[in-house]
Specification:
The chain contains 4 helices and 11 strands, in the order H-E-H-E-E-E-E-E-E-E-E-E-H-E-H. It has helices spanning 2-10, 58-70, 231-243, 272-278; strands at residues 44-52, 73-79, 96-100, 112-118, 132-137, 153-156, 169-175, 189-194, 210-213, 224-227, 256-260.
């Protein structure tokens, strides 16, 4: 293994300067996705329903939500979810969904389109692989918040745990409070706004994307460097945070920007024989 590591350094695989331009693009912060699946249910947002989930398991809760969507209900309130795991997952539909209480692990994962509001807390991996829509949490969130998120807005008004936005591929993550260690780890695209402090190794091994921090940063991870804010970003930040009534204590104008330094060697450009060598 040591010999392979020396050879990879001799080949310059660890100090290559990437020249590709960023893939980040700024659009209207308020624009909505128009995509819907051909099999999505036709729902009426004015047609409302609610049910008490206290005595139901996670599968029964998810099935009930789908049955209500199938019958045309576009606004659904779930009372007493009691921090059950895997609730509100796999919703590929326009929907206003409200949880009055807290969710456990993997809540609201694999969603594409719904607007979800959670009045309590959420456990690990909330909104993992989210594609589109909005998920707003009023209190705190666990670790791996928004793991591999690809689109939409994921908002926690409180504090979150470590590895927020790990492998983020798009969308926007907003944290009203603090975030834990290794937030933005292996970030590939998208934006993260941390209004409070960020713990150690922020943006470690990020390839692209942008992280904004309002508080103190304990330290930066590998290849995460400060960036310069421009007027387009500032306008976008004011609009996006204004949509959720959130503003960092330091003021939006004083947010610090962090981006990829692009000093990591580019694995995708390696020849097949070189990939075998480093593997």
């Amino acid at each position: 293994m040591a010999g392979v590591e020396r050879k990879s350094h001799d080949m310059g695989l660890h100090d290559e300067q990437l020249t590709g331009r960023t893939q980040q693009r700024f659009f209207s912060a308020a624009e909505e996705e128009n995509f819907t699946y051909p099999w999505a249910y036709e729902v009426d947002f004015d047609k409302t329903a609610e049910f008490d989930a206290e005595a139901m398991d996670s599968s029964a809760i998810n099935l009930k939500i789908r049955e209500l969507m199938q019958s045309g209900h576009g606004t659904i309130t779930v009372k007493n979810p009691r921090a059950k795991h895997g609730v509100g997952v796999g919703i590929l539909n326009r929907l206003n969904l409200k949880f009055e209480g807290s969710l456990g692990y993997f809540g609201c994962g694999l969603v594409d389109g719904p607007n979800i509001h959670i009045s309590g807390r959420v456990g690990w991996s909330c909104a993992e692989n989210m594609m589109a829509g909005k998920v707003v949490i009023d209190k705190n969130a666990g670790s791996t918040f928004g793991a591999a998120i690809r689109g939409g807005d994921l908002v926690c008004r409180g504090d979150v745990g470590s590895r927020t936005g790990i492998d983020q591929k798009g969308g926007t993550i907003i944290v009203g409070g603090r975030t834990g260690a290794f937030s933005g780890f292996m970030m590939q695209r998208g934006r993260m706004i941390i209004c409070g402090d960020a713990s150690k190794s922020l943006g470690d091994s990020m390839y692209d994307g942008t992280i904004y921090v309002g508080g103190q940063v304990e330290d930066l991870g590998v290849d995460c460097v400060p960036g310069e804010m421009n007027d387009t970003e500032l306008k976008w930040l004011k609009t996006k945070l204004g949509m959720y009534g959130i503003e960092p204590a330091c003021g939006i104008e004083n947010l610090k920007k962090f981006v990829a330094g692009k000093q990591l060697w580019n694995y995708d450009n390696l020849e097949p024989t070189e990939k075998k060598l480093v593997l």
